[in-house]
Amino acid sequence: MIDLLRGERYALTHLKSAVEFLGFLKHNYHLDCLVFEVDGDLRSLLRKLQERSIFLPAVIFSPQPGVDGRPEAPYSDGFDVAASTANKSQEESCAFFYHPAEVQLAIARSSEIGSGIERAIAQFLKLSTPVPVNYQSATVDATAQLTAQSLLSLQQRRLAEKLRERLGYLGVYYKRNSQIFLRNLSGPEKQKFLEQLKSSYRDIVLNYFSQDTAVNNQIDEFVNLAFFADVPVTQIVEIHMELMEEFAKQLKIEGRNEEILLDYRLTLIDAIAHMCEMYRRSIPKEASQGKS
Q: Superfamily for 3-140?
């Protein structure tokens, strides 16, 4: 199977253990596709990726997958569906190892790995949620859903941009779940989410004028989080002002000049500009062009 991927088209990295893979992934988030073979450690490994909200296109080879590459019945280890209450659509939506856009193939069909990778990438770019909504709402809080959704979108965008550079790929449109919009969250969920959003923005402010280029990724992640929760710009401004007030009090205590905080207006402008770009990208071309 590995020999089928050798050549100029693929840059292949072959890892033999879960520990080795997770160590590699820490420094290589921009992978195009993962290829797994089912074994005793696979479920545990993929569970760790899910918990960390790391989602990538994936091809999974198993000894006997079901019809058309799908398993014959829902798998367990976190995706159990009680037989007495589950309907067919729920069972089908939970019948995956990693996420609903994965491609499963029988090992006997290993010669199809190239087309499997292409299909996995295409399906991943259309994926609107990393885990079915029915599953999420039952077991995961809204903040965790929004975090997973925003990181999924970020990975989709990175992948789409790479494909556009290579192939002229048109990219993807963003699909949001209104159930986890900020205005629709319960009081405690809303408070928890806003605390996370403020913490994320605080990190951006603290690193904004440093030489650390990771701040651009921090802004992207912050904007993705705000976008999928449909956070209004006024809320972003409010978070900024609250942080500036906190920093001003600290500077007073330290006897330092508060004027330095004026420079951080650039941070707010940058965040809002990124958010405007996100909304621009989310509008389908036919909607933005209007009817002729």
A: Response regulator (3.40.50.2300)
Query: How far are the Cα atoms of 71, 198, 201, 235 from residue 241, in angstroms, in the given order?
Result: 51, 11, 11, 10
What strand order describes the sheet that includes 58-62? Answer: 34-37, 58-62, 103-106
Residues 21-52 pLDDT 10s: 888 877 666 678 899 988 878 888 888 888 88
Place of tokens 């330290």: 254
Place of tokens 């508060």: 258
Coil, strand or helix at 105: strand
pLDDT tens digits along 227-272: 888 899 999 999 999 999 999 998 888 888 888 888 999 999 999 9
d(CA 274, CA 154): 13
End-to-end CA gap in the chain? 50
3-class secondary structure, 36? strand
Q: Which long-range contacts (CB under 8 A, 24 or more apart) does 220-223 make?
A: 220/154, 220/274, 221/150, 221/151, 221/154, 222/197, 222/271, 223/271, 223/274, 223/275, 223/278
The CATH fold of domain 173-289: 1.10.1240
Report how far residue 237's alpha carbon sits from residue 271's, in angstroms, rounded to the nearest whole number: 10
Amino acid code (one letter) for 40: G
Domain limits of the chain? 3-140, 173-289
The pairing of beta strand 34-37 with beta strand 103-106: unpaired
pLDDT digits (tens, 9 = 90+) for 175-188: 677 778 899 888 89
The two three-digit tokens of residue 120, written as one number = 């996995």
